[in-house]
Design goal:
Belongs to the TCF/LEF family. 40% of the residues lie in helices and 1% in strands. By secondary structure, it is mainly alpha-helical. It has a domain of 58 residues: DNA Binding (I), subunit A. The structure holds a DNA duplex (15 and 15 nucleotides).
Length: 583
DNA sequence: GAGCCTTTGAAGCAT
DNA sequence: ATGCTTCAAAGGCTC
């Protein structure tokens, strides 16, 4: 694999970024077409698992791939989406954005400064330090500019503003994913903000030189406020209160800093601008508001723990006289990879489907998640990792435990002593409930089950060419599942949940969630610990959908070996499958 | 209006 | 070290 990334400073899996995704995408398209007939067979098979990953679903993907123009039904969605979201989605669609030369850098170097910046637009020292430390490749504006906090010059902030352009226009050496200007469609920013600059020679949008942009930045707060936030989930979505933008707009040092999607998510998505002016309690000591901080009015319960960041304790509550504890802001947990993915893809799924219920949507998303390629998942893992890092930096004293008990506990009425059969039955019912007719729009075909399970260092897996090999090795060792206690293993097959990896929900007594997984799961790999630090590559059961699709339509040579292993596994474990599917 | 449902992942707690 | 529990998002649904 060509290594075009000379830098490689960041661990975003840049090494894999050189994959010619365009070629691969084309290949996948062909495969897609070739296997259309096989998809029919898929449909038949799918009935065994109460899944309907039918043509509809697959065609969705294919259509998405072929659609050159943004779908109208996504317009509204896209209106509220940030560039990052769009970039990711396109990348995943592989279609009208099929040339992510840098899958490891699927994220936009968007200057989102909602958070790392102080209210005056200056990057907070801590944030700046953090950014520079964590994102060596982060296109932080000129050192000169940022390093001189006193510099009021907008130019220093505008330097190297991420350019928005089609991925296929990205210079091969550009480690930044750019995106189409169309993402601004909802509210086309002032022309001077146009993320694209046509190259006079080629006519191709190119990344403007910082010098070309600097004069235009930073935007006035008002102007910025009129611009649709480039960072998707920052913008209110479907009534999402968390990311609403105040009427007056928010001070958004828009061009101040180029950042990748990781930053986008870290900063924008999680750092709601609306908190900046109104919620002092949501302001970190660094002056960085964080969207993870929820107004006490939204979520506050008396039994909150006292593990907040010291800065949090000192916050004054805007609310009326309430107990100090009640005034503590609720710092939400950083989103994990899947959550990020969900946020990114939910609207798309909703648009593609008639489904409205989140439960159903989530099921689809769960399967899509598994259908993602290693690289694609790794992007989210990396993003999540950075989000956690930033979160920990912003709230050093915060602990996940702080939020324990702040949410009503789930109903525990569900027969904790349920027998496996109970599980099975319930699963079936729930499958029917949530993935019946409408699942037609369901997941994509899981052309290849992605069994990447929250690698401790996703990027490492990406970066390492050996990763696939290791993967094969593990994948080719279904026996590893025997390392698990038989009981657990049993549970494994019956509930479709990994024993060790414990996607937690499985253990939930209510457990409906995991146990309701409609797919057939085959424990693969050494799922021992669910700890992210030691998460095996394949600790998660493979959705049957992914499995059988894998066998029918291997997506790419890259996965063929893995698929082969899958196949072998499938053949070697027929009983399990039969048992399950005959349920 | 509170909570459920559903998904995966991370983290904390208990053993 | 391992397993279980809780929470994170989302929005329709149920009670």
């Amino acid at each position: 694999m060509p290594q075009l990334n000379g830098g490689g400073g960041d661990d975003l899996g840049a090494n894999d970024e050189m994959i010619s995704f365009k070629d691969e995408g084309e290949q996948e398209e062909k495969i897609s077409e070739n296997v259309s007939a096989e998809r029919d067979l898929d449909d038949l098979k799918s009935s065994l698992v109460n899944e309907s990953e039918n043509n509809s679903s697959s065609s969705d993907s294919e259509q998405a791939e072929r659609r050159p123009q943004p779908r109208p039904d996504l317009d509204s969605y896209e209106k509220t989406r940030d560039y990052f979201s769009e970039a990711l989605r396109r990348q995943q669609d592989g279609g009208f954005f099929k040339s992510p030369h840098y899958p490891g850098y699927p994220f936009l170097m968007i200057p989102d400064l909602t958070n790392p910046y102080l209210s005056n637009g200056a990057l907070s020292p801590s944030a700046r330090t953090y950014l520079q430390m964590k994102w060596p490749l982060l296109d932080v504006p000129g050192a000169a500019g940022l390093k001189d906090p006193r510099s009021p010059t907008p130019g220093h902030l505008s330097n190297k503003v991420p350019v928005v352009q089609h991925a296929h226009h990205v210079h091969p050496l550009t480690p930044l994913i750019t995106y189409s200007n169309e993402h601004f469609s909802p509210g086309t920013p002032p022309s001077h903000l146009s993320p694209e600059i046509l190259d006079p020679k080629t006519g191709i949008p190119r990344t403007p030189h910082p010098s070309e942009l600097s004069p235009y930045y930073p935007l006035s707060p008002g102007a910025v406020g009129q611009i649709p936030h480039p960072l998707g989930w920052l913008v209110p979505q479907q009534g999402q209160h968390m990311y609403s933008i105040p009427p007056g707009g928010f001070r958004h040092p828009y061009p101040a800093l180029a950042m990748n999607a990781s930053m986008s998510s870290l900063v924008s998505s999680r750092f709601s601008p609306h908190m900046m002016p109104h919620h002092p309690h949501g302001m970190h000591q660094t002056g960085i508001p964080h969207p993870a901080i929820v107004s006490p009015a939204i979520k506050q319960e008396p039994n909150s723990h006292d593990h907040m960041s010291p800065s949090m304790h000192s916050r004054k509550s805007p609310g009326p006289a309430k107990k100090e504890e009640d005034k503590k802001p609720h710092i939400k947990k950083p989103l994990n990879a899947f959550m990020l993915y969900m946020k990114e893809m939910r609207a798309k799924v909703v648009a593609e489907c008639t489904l409205k219920e989140s439960a159903a949507i989530n099921q689809i998303l769960g399967r899509r998640w598994h259908s993602l390629s290693r690289e694609e998942q790794a992007k989210y893992y990396e993003l999540a990792r950075k989000e956690r890092q930033l979160h920990s930096q912003l709230y050093p004293g915060w602990s996940a435990r702080d939020n324990y008990g702040k949410r009503k506990k789930r109903k525990r009425d569900n027969k904790p002593d349920s027998t496996p059969e109970d599980f099975s039955i319930r699963n079936k019912n729930q499958c029917v409930q949530y993935l019946p007719s409408e699942k037609m729009c369901d997941s994509p075909a899981s052309s290849h089950g992605s069994m990447l399970d929250s690698p401790a260092t996703p990027s490492a897996a990406l970066a390492s060419p050996a990763a696939p090999a290791a993967t094969h090795s593990e994948q080719a060792q279904p026996l590893s599942l025997t390392t698990k206690p038989e009981g657990r293993l049993h549970h494994h097959f019956l509930t479709g949940k990994p024993s060790g990896s414990a996607s937690s929900s499985s253990s939930s007594s209510s457990s409906s969630s995991s146990s309701s997984h409609p797919s057939i799961s085959i424990p693969i790999g050494t799922s021992g610990s669910h700890s992210s630090h030691s998460a095996p590559i394949f600790s998660r059961p493979i959705p049957f959908s992914s499995l059988h699709h894998s066998m029918l339509s291997p997506p790419s040579p890259f996965h063929q070996a893995a698929l082969h292993s899958h196949h072998a596994l499938f053949q070697s474990q027929p009983l399990s499958l039969v048992t399950k599917s005959s349920d």
